[in-house]
Amino acid sequence: MNWQHAISDYQLFLKIERGLADNSIENYTRDITKLVTYLEESGISTSPIHLGADVVMEFIYTISKELEATSQSRIISGLRSFFDYLIFENYRDDNPTTLIETPKVGRKLPEVLSLAEIDALLNTIDLSTPEGERNRTMLETLYSCGLRVTELIKLQLSDLFFEEGFIRVIGKGDKQRFIPINANTQKFITLYVTKIRAHSTQQKGFEDTVFLNRRGKQLTRNMVFMIIKGLAEKAGISKKVSPHTFRHSFATHLLENGADLRSIQQMLGHESITTTEIYMHVDRRFLKEVVNKFHPRR
Question: In what order do the strands lie in the sheet with 176-180?
Answer without folding.
Answer: 160-161, 166-170, 176-180
